[in-house]
């Protein structure tokens, strides 16, 4: 299988910052001033509240945390990901809803109206479930991830920096959300029971005929043999310095747990004095847990050590996804799969 080449672009800031979010909780459900004010009286996030379908409240001006969280989980289970599950309405949730609506033949409004809510909830499993933390979950080793590439290269692996980060990735959620769902729980104790998003028992996707990356929407869509969408994920795509290479390409190969070859000469924002470095594999590797090599030299689709940034920042030309989304996506594609990168 192809490995990321020495010239492969990578995320701009590759520091593993996800663990830092574990110490911060928030009740904000929207970036609008009105919603920020209303967030002070946020709906309680517990299994009973989130698992009750109720009436939809998933729109920019009307987004209670329980409804948004339920929508994020059900969309994830339907393979229309909003990225990191955080109970907050934002652009990734809006795009996930729009993609799901297109699949279901509904108006693509990005708002969970009654028809969309009914479709999402039809035969739905519980959104939140109980999980017992295992010995493997807490075994580690957990180590602080340094900022500099040279220091990263000195480590034997770039694993998780905390059990909260590891559990967050396992359940596609922000560590802050897990803490909010489980006040007073000890995430470092095997046998502890916690409430988590129900995202682990989904069926694998069938093989896709094409990958479509939309620069404007910041989405990656898997198309079936009839040209219809069957899954969608938020992505980060390029920047003014390293624009997305628009056009038709194909998948050359897939690499799991890739090693990253850092070459500062290829990065406009490299720190002065940086030298080439071989960065070991792991979820906090600059390209995450997988590299899907494209026929455009030195470009690929890959994971990230910072899932909260997906769909909200820029990249060095490559297509960046959360580690769990790239893992799901790569199981549906293979060498020769068509790739369309468009505006």
In the sheet with the most strands, the strands line up as: 7-6-5-15-9-12-13-14-8
Unreliable spans: 5-42
At the fourth level of CATH, the homologous superfamily of the largest domain is: L,D-transpeptidase catalytic domain-like
Count helical runs.
Answer: 10
**Which CATH-level-2 architecture of the largest domain?**
Beta Barrel
Quick tags:
about 350 residues, alpha+beta, Muramoyl-pentapeptide Carboxypeptidase, domain 1, L,D-transpeptidase catalytic domain-like, Transpep_catalytic_dom
Describe the structure.
The chain has 343 residues and is an alpha+beta fold. It folds into three domains: 19-121, Muramoyl-pentapeptide Carboxypeptidase, domain 1, CATH 1.10.101; 131-197, no CATH class; 203-342, L,D-transpeptidase catalytic domain-like (Beta Barrel). The chain is built from ten helices and 15 strands. The chain has helices spanning 33-38, 47-51, 65-77, 91-103, 114-121, 135-139, 149-152, 163-170, 175-181, 323-330; strands spanning 58-59, 62-63, 128-132, 193-197, 210-214, 219-223, 229-234, 236-237, 247-256, 260-262, 277-279, 290-294, 300-302, 319-320, 338-342. Strands 7-6-5-15-9-12-13-14-8 form a nine-stranded mixed β-sheet, sandwiched between helices. It has a two-stranded antiparallel sheet with strand order 1-2. β5 and β6 form a beta hairpin. α3 crosses α4. The longest helix is centred in the N-terminal third of the chain and has 13 residues, at 65-77. It is globular. 48% of the residues are buried. Mean pLDDT is 86; it is low at 5-42.
């Amino acid at each position: 299988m192809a490995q990321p080449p020495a010239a492969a672009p990578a995320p701009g800031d590759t520091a593993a910052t996800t663990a830092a979010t574990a110490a911060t909780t928030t009740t904000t459900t929207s970036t609008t001033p009105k919603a920020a004010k209303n967030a002070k009286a946020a709906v309680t996030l517990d299994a009973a509240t989130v698992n009750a379908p109720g009436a939809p409240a998933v729109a920019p001006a009307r987004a209670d945390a329980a409804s948004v969280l339920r929508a994020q989980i059900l969309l994830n289970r339907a393979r229309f990901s909003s990225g990191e599950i955080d109970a907050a309405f934002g652009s990734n949730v809006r795009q996930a809803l729009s993609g799901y609506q297109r699949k279901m033949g509904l108006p693509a409004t990005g708002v969970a109206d009654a028809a969309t809510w009914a479709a999402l909830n039809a035969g739905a499993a519980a959104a939140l479930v109980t999980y017992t933390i295992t010995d493997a979950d807490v075994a580690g080793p957990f180590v602080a991830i340094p900022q500099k590439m040279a220091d990263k290269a000195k480590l034997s692996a770039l694993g998780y920096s905390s059990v909260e980060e590891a559990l967050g990735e396992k359940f596609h959620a922000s560590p802050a959300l897990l803490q909010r769902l489980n006040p007073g729980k000890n995430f470092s104790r095997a046998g502890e029971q916690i409430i988590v998003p129900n995202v682990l028992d989904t069926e694998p996707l069938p093989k896709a005929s094409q990958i479509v990356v939309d620069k404007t929407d910041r989405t990656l869509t898997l198309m079936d043999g009839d040209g219809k969408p069957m899954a969608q994920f938020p992505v980060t795509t390029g920047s003014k310095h390293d624009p997305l290479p628009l056009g038709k390409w194909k998948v050359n190969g897939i690499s799991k747990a890739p090693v990253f070859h850092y070459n500062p000469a290829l990065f406009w924002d490299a720190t002065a004095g940086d030298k080439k470095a071989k960065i070991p594999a792991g979820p906090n590797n600059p390209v995450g847990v997988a590299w899907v090599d494209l026929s455009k030299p030195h470009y690929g689709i890959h994971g990230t050590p910072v899932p909260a940034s997906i769909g909200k920042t820029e990249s060095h030309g490559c297509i960046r996804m959360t580690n769990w989304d790239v893992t799901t996506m790569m199981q549906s594609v293979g060498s020769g799969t068509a790739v369309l990168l468009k505006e």
